[in-house]
Design brief:
The protein is an alpha/beta fold. 41% of the residues lie in helices and 16% in strands. The strands form three sheets. The chain has a four-stranded parallel β-sheet with strand order 3-4-5-6. A two-stranded parallel sheet has the order 1-2. The chain has helices at 2-12, 28-33, 47-57, 71-79, 102-111, 121-130, 143-153, 160-170, 180-184; strands spanning 19-22, 38-41, 61-65, 83-89, 115-118, 137-139, 177-179, 196-198.
């Protein structure tokens, strides 16, 4: 989710300075290859460390992605005049964030958001329960799909993958590629994005 946002905004405003942070080591490989000016680990969400980070960066916009809203950083950034937003915001129905006492501890951070892009209407409803004012929530969908579409569109017409897909679907009565959604949900209308299962690789 963060990758598609960074790429889209960077194309639109290349003169801005971009900082990408993460806390989990699993996100480091992505962070190191993104086209940003600074990429590094995020400090603990404690008052002193949040203040030091904001003083060093002085961001105009602070964007959180998906699940990772840090309440101390968010509230202190908003108090300093930074616009705090959340993209690809999602809250599972059984999320611990919705239960006491966690919800009360997180509420100031969610209330500090000036805009939250939820991936679905249900997520938007749960974001309200967490403290985001209803007027600041927009259902924007999942930016992962935009990233996939962009990557597929970047495949050159002469790429061997393009030739194989054309051959599979144009020259064979039974192509080796199955529509995963139709296989699992034959009576349900096709969604906008569906998976494809390759019988040759995974019989």
């Amino acid at each position: 989710q963060a990758e598609s946002l960074v790429m889209a905004v960077r194309r639109r405003d290349p003169v801005w300075q971009y900082v990408y942070t993460w806390f989990s080591p699993s996100a480091e490989s992505l962070g190191r290859r993104l086209p940003v000016d600074v990429a590094d680990y995020l400090p603990y969400d404690l008052p002193g460390q949040a203040d030091a980070l904001l003083a060093a960066l002085r961001p105009d916009v602070l964007a959180f992605a998906k699940l990772d809203l840090w309440p101390e950083l968010a509230t202190r950034a908003a108090a300093a005049g930074t616009r705090v937003i959340m993209v690809a915001a999602t809250v599972a129905p059984g999320s611990g964030r919705l239960r006491w006492p966690v919800r009360g501890l997180l509420k100031p951070g969610y209330a500090s958001l000036s805009l939250a892009g939820a991936i679905s209407a249900d997520d938007a409803t749960r974001l309200q329960r967490l403290g985001v004012p209803p007027g600041r929530i927009r259902v924007t969908g999942d930016p992962r799909f935009d990233s996939v579409v962009e990557k597929v569109g970047a495949v050159r017409p002469d790429d061997p993958l393009q030739a194989r897909l054309r051959a599979d679907f144009e020259d064979s009565a039974t192509p080796p590629l199955d529509d995963a959604w139709r296989a699992l949900h034959p009576a349900t209308p096709q969604p906008p994005t569906a998976g494809v299962h390759d019988r040759e690789q995974w019989p």
